[in-house]
Amino acid sequence: MEALCDMMEAITGDTAFTEQANKLLEKKKGKKIMMCEYISQLEVRGEAKLTSLLERLYDLGRGEDVELAVRDRDARARLYRELSIPDHRCE
Questions:
Q1: Could you identify which of 5, 53, 56, 71 might form a hypothetical disulfide with 18, taking C-beta atoms 3.0 to 4.6 angstroms apart as the criterion?
Q2: Rounded CA gap, 59 and 48, in Å?
Q3: Residue 47, C-beta contacts closer than 8 angstroms, at least 6 positions apart
Q4: In angstroms, rounded to a whole number, what is the distance separating the alpha carbons of residues 24 and 38?
Q5: Global confidence as pTM
Q6: Could you tell me if 58 and 66 are in contact, meaning their C-beta atoms sit under 8 angstroms apart?
């Protein structure tokens, strides 16, 4: 898991992968962590972020932007910034 976190941090410049792994390690208190647990937590984090974006767009009546966010990665990133959707971290 450490090697994966190091690689992801090197590729993206984002320390969130390592931070998430450290939180999971603290929670497990020295017990072995299955990679699927870690990946599951990353998925939850991404889903929460996307859900926040889609909810905000729906609340603003921006249905066309909802479709854009679902279909276009660059547009989605722009909308996250525009609506100040923060990076969600799982607790």
A1: 5
A2: 16
A3: none
A4: 7
A5: 0.63
A6: yes
Secondary structure string (H, E, C) spanning the chain: CHHHHHHHHHHHCCCHHHHHHHHHHHHHCCCCCCHHHHHHHHHHHHHHHHHHHHHHHHHCCCHHHHHHHHHCHHHHHHHHHHCCCCCCCCC
Residues of the chain with pLDDT under 50: 88-91
pLDDT at 34: 75
Phi-psi map region of 44: left, alpha, beta (phi>0 left; psi -120 to 50 alpha): alpha
Position 89 scores a pLDDT of: 40
CB-CB contact of 44 with 23 (8 Å): no
